[in-house]
Design a protein that fits this description.
By secondary structure, this protein is an all-alpha fold. It is built from 13 helices and no strands. The protein has helices at about 1-25, 30-50, 60-85, 85-95, 100-105, 115-130, 140-160, 170-195, 205-210, 215-235, 240-245, 250-260, 270-285.
Length: about 290
């Protein structure tokens, strides 16, 4: 079950990243984050009311608040890094955030077998290669590398925090709701600050563009929510080390989506990375 839910996380995160990437070509990235997460808040709020999940309010929700604060900050750092450095360098480095939940899992007592340790190594290498790292001829600003590492640490921290935010299914609904409300507050504050500095909140074409993109924005927000939920379940069902690595295969999904939808050609190193990621997945699932 751990492998199944973790792989579902990768699929959902990969598709959400792909959809979010397409949307940011037409509207400001912060606007995409805030609107998509606001839709998620409305849906999750209805779920919380319908299931009575609010009765599970407790101190563990501070983990959800932490995830809600760190998530938008990590995303902003990642987008800034993409603006400063080559995507072929930034994207693979961003996937190194898996080190955070894996380290947490080892500290709390997870002890994967030899085959699973091999699978962890192979899968992480596959994820990095699937991003298509530019091994030479790619000048990278030191600030871009620093921002990418900050983003990676943030993404990994969100995985670790959300796994601790609940112990039941209804509690998970409440935790995800709290996380998304925090996302909107933090992201909305960042958007307001950006506008005050002269940035744009609306795309060219105004609200009509956002209204037309609402289904896509809803998909991005809800897929991200579902991914956080399936990851939390995966981490509770089995070793966090296994769940974290399998959930971090989402760059492979994003690359394949770009290949299938946008007809972007996969470089040889990306195809090799996807293959290694698959091998690592098999080792983790069967080890």
């Amino acid at each position: 079950m751990t492998a199944l839910f973790a792989l579902a996380t990768s699929l959902l995160w990969g598709l959400a990243d792909f959809g979010g990437g397409l949307l940011t070509r037409r509207m400001p990235a912060l606007t995409v984050v805030v609107v998509s997460q606001l839709i998620a808040v409305l849906v999750l709020g209805s779920v919380v009311l319908a299931t009575g999940a609010w009765t599970e309010f407790g101190p563990q929700l501070w983990y959800a608040v932490g995830a809600g604060v760190v998530g938008p900050a990590a995303m902003l750092a990642f987008y800034k890094a993409l603006a400063l450095g080559p995507m072929g360098v930034v994207s693979p480095l961003g996937s190194l955030g898996v080190v955070v939940p894996v380290s947490v899992g080892l500290l709390v007592g997870d002890r994967p077998g030899l085959v699973q340790f091999a699978g962890i190594g192979v899968a992480i290498l596959g994820v990095v290669l699937a991003g298509g790292p530019e091994l030479r001829g790619a000048p990278v600003q030191r600030q871009a590398v620093l921002l990418t590492l900050v983003a990676a640490f943030g993404f990994g921290s969100v995985m670790a925090l959300i796994a601790e935010a609940s112990t039941t299914v209804t509690g998970l609904f409440l935790a995800l709701f709290v996380q998304r409300v925090t996302n909107v507050v933090v992201g909305g504050g960042a958007l307001y600050a950006s506008v005050k500095r002269g940035g744009r909140a609306l795309p060219e074409g105004g609200f009509q563009v956002i209204r037309a993109a609402l289904p896509a924005l809803a998909f991005v927000g809800l897929a991200d929510v579902a991914a956080n939920g399936t990851y939390a379940i995966a981490a509770q069902q089995g070793p966090v080390t296994v769940a974290a690595v399998l959930a971090s295969l989402y760059p492979v999904v994003t690359a394949l989506a770009a290949y299938g939808v946008l007809k972007e050609r996969l470089r040889a190193i990306q195809a090799a990375g996807a293959g290694l990621a698959l091998v690592g997945t098999v080792l983790l699932a069967t080890g």
